[in-house]
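Reading a protein record of the kind used here takes only a little practice. The integers have meaning only within a learned vocabulary of local backbone shapes. With that in mind, consider the following protein and its fold in token form:
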Amino acid sequence: MNFGRGPSVVLNVGGTRYSFSREVLKDFPLRRVSRLHGCLSEQDVLEVCDDYDRERNEYFFDRHSEAFGFIMLYVRHGHLRFVPHMCELSFYNEMIYWGLEGSHLDYCCQRRLDDRMSETSTYYAVEDPPGEPFGGSEDKGQQPQGAEGGKWLERMRRTFEEPTSSVAAQILATVSILFVIVSMVVLCASTLPEWRAPENRSVEERSRYTAESVREPSGIIEAVCIGWFTAECIVRFIISKNKCEFVRRPLNIIDLLAITPYYISVLMTVFTGENSQLQRAGVTLRVLRMMRIFWVIKLARHFIGLQTLGLTLKRCYREMVMLLVFICVAMAIFSALSQLLENGLDLGTKNKDYASIPAACWWVIISMTTVGYGDMCPITVPGRILGGICVVSGIVLLALPITFIYHSFVQCYHELKFRSARYGRSLSAEFLN
């Protein structure tokens, strides 16, 4: 160390003092502490620590003392673990400050940190669309149109992305919900015999968007709904901060899947016309029109319940994969045994429903999930015993991962509820003002 006097130095971290010799600091495992050895002036020291006492040769760091104590245990013994009853992200910030990384943690704590960071990044991704109203993007200097333009864009983002942020956002959300409901009602009603076109029109003609079909009530309602959804999507894309991130968001992908089939159907009708060789496109058009059912998922933008479901599925993908593995393993075992007992032993009572293992897989799935349609069932005594074991095994295997998914669902619901409550408080303040 080229600055300071005395054979030893004192580190004061949040009120807890640690005394070291000068030579120890030279190769200290913590990068921030080792930087003190090369300081030439008091100004250099103050760039590393928060304060310096020349008389005591004491360096003060305004950091969490208990967290630094656990970091010192890592320096001495080589094991780094989280502080009990301390947020993993807060301790990770302390590690970054002192020059450590997540790889320095023990394996169990690394998994906790990865899970916590995954949950937090998902939660922040849900909060990002409103424009970080509580983080203040206006302080980052990213508004090219000036302060007033930035505030206006921020308000527009909150209006379109967060239904509880203002009165205008609530009105916009209500109108959007009404359009979704109307479009779903029209879609369901169009499958009724009374709603269909006259019988003298072919299936392909009813599937194409001709001038006559557009002038029909269902065609007019569909065009209006598509126009509203298209305008809403375009406006939200224009006012978004990150266009690439906007396109990658799941709800925006669902919006595109719900809107594009209409325009594809119109274009296909325009280009195919009445060409008899392309009348097979009628089936494709009907499939594209049926994709309007994705509009129901648009309600997730306005209801916490659907948001909670999506966030839970995103966080519990490991448990979901584990559940699918359980089902696949059990399905492979029970389907092979049931096919052998019911059809493969040649006991004089062959069950044709179990002629192959793939056919028996269907019986295993409906048995493990306790659905039991009754379309196929074992008739031999060994097969019925195996069926009982299959049902009991299905209950146990399906119940094991459900507990983890349930706890994650409750946590996601409370997080989204808390976020909605914060926007509700801002809405109350708007009413008062």
